[in-house]
Design brief:
The protein is 56% helix and 0% strand. It has 432 residues and is mainly alpha-helical. Among the domains are: 71 residues, no CATH class; 95 residues, no CATH class. The chain is flat and about 75 Å long. The two termini are 23 Å apart.
Length: 432
């Protein structure tokens, strides 16, 4: 089906340049069917954002890429539209060179040979792993590609590759790619840091990773916390080690304090995912979250649990909170606090409208700085409007969308919450 861009998408692609919206649309409409089939309008907008006067040359580059991948033998590894979008994020002036590098990655090197990407997949790296590592690579793209090749190359004749060493230590390729995601100029330093992570700290001793897994954190938990760490990698590793170390001889570690209060290691790692420089402040706030607010009283986590939000709901909402951790916790407390003496809390209002606690936490998943606007938007979503007296949520239900459907669509919507709700209501409105 041909592209159907809306006015907002056209403006995003157009950016600040001399082209008119009509000229931009005409350029887009001149694309081949194969390119329009590869990217939908939303993905194309993300890839081509602020292309302006460079739109034609960028589209030509993408045409070459899609043509190259469509010409591959069936079963040959290739990148998906989301993979390509990830690698072109923040490409700026490197857009066309990066597309050419991606074409080189998927193209067989000689008659009957395999592509560099095929070589990486044979070594255990899926295309999505490679794309994750190359996310926002920009001018570092060629160097990181070479670094990935070195990562899967045996260190000696018949020996193991660095990736094999990491796998044997318990890290899956997806863990490695998660840690290296968006590493840019820090790629080599982080690779060395990962090697140190799996290397015993003394002869016959444990590696830092083994210390962490013995404390209850799985390799995937560790990789989640270290995801996109960049220059923060060494400090994060030290921080995680401290988190599993008893605060006093014979005492509990901070992680044990959190798990004893009802947070599983996976909850903790979800909240700390991509924490970067906010790691230590978030750990401190997590301890406060599970600490009784008065002698013999309830902790904030207990208050949320009593209102029906399980630790898994809370961790989902706080996923990747970063510097927004404290405002989100304050917002959660307000969400479960009655709006008047003896009255309902905002969460009760949402529940009475048919949105379960799981629905709410799904929509607020990873909300970050958008928590308050989304919470307000949710209340608007369940508030009846004249003249029929139906809420927008009721309108969607009458159109055939269940509460679970709506929460699934709005899962992790972030700053796109309102536009998505608006489009949903258009979808459920008779065309007439």
């Amino acid at each position: 089906m041909p592209w159907q861009f809306n006015a907002q998408q056209i403006r995003r692609i157009q950016g600040n340049n001399q082209l008119t919206p009509e000229q931009t649309l005409a350029t887009l409409n001149g694309c081949s069917n194969q390119l329009q089939a590869f990217f939908n309008e939303k993905r194309a907008t993300t890839v081509l954002v602020k292309s302006g006067n460079k739109l034609s040359e960028r589209l030509a580059a993408l045409e070459r890429l899609v043509s190259a991948m469509n010409g591959l033998n069936r079963g040959a590894p290739r990148f998906s539209d989301s993979n390509v979008s990830s690698m072109l994020d923040k490409a700026y002036g490197q857009f066309v060179p990066i597309v050419d590098e991606i074409i080189t990655l998927v193209t067989p090197m000689a008659q009957g040979g395999v592509s560099p990407l095929a070589g990486l997949t044979q070594a255990g790296m899926r295309p999505s792993n490679v794309a994750s590592i190359l996310h926002s690579a920009g001018g570092n793209f060629p160097n990181i590609v070479q670094g990935i090749k070195d990562l899967v190359t045996p260190m000696a004749e018949g020996g193991l590759s660095p990736l094999n060493v990491l796998i044997n230590a318990g890290l899956r390729p997806s863990n490695v790619s998660s840690i290296l995601s968006g590493s840019c100029k820090n790629f080599l330093d982080i690779v060395e840091g990962i090697k140190d992570l799996v290397t015993p700290m003394a002869e016959g001793g444990l590696s830092p990773l083994k210390v962490l897994t013995n404390a209850g954190l799985s390799p995937t938990n560790v990789a989640s916390i270290l995801s996109g760490s960049r220059s923060h990698f060494p400090g994060l590793v030290d921080g995680i080690i401290k988190m599993v170390t008893p605060i006093a001889p014979g005492g509990w570690s901070p992680l044990e304090v959190l798990t004893t209060a009802g947070l599983r290691p996976s909850n903790v790692s979800s909240i700390l995912s991509g924490a970067g420089g906010n790691f230590h402040p978030i750990v401190d706030e997590l301890i406060k979250l599970v600490t009784p607010m008065a002698q013999g009283g309830l902790s904030p986590l207990d208050v949320l649990a009593n209102a029906g939000l399980r630790p898994s709901n809370v961790s989902s909402i706080l996923n990747g909170a970063g510097g927004n951790f404290l405002p989100i916790v304050i917002g959660l407390i307000k969400l479960v606090t009655p709006m008047a003496q003896g009255g309902l809390s905002p969460l009760d209002v949402l529940a009475n409208a048919g949105l379960s606690r799981n629905n709410v936490s799904s929509i607020l998943h990873g909300a970050g700085g958008n928590f308050l606007p989304i919470a307000i938007g949710l209340l608007d979503l369940v508030t009846p409007t004249p003249p029929e007296g139906l809420s927008p949520l009721d309108v969607l239900a009458d159109a055939g969308l269940s509460r679970n459907n709506v929460s699934s669509i709005l899962n992790g919507a972030g700053g796109n919450f309102l536009p998505i709700v608006t489009e949903l209501l258009k979808l459920g409105t008779p065309i007439a």
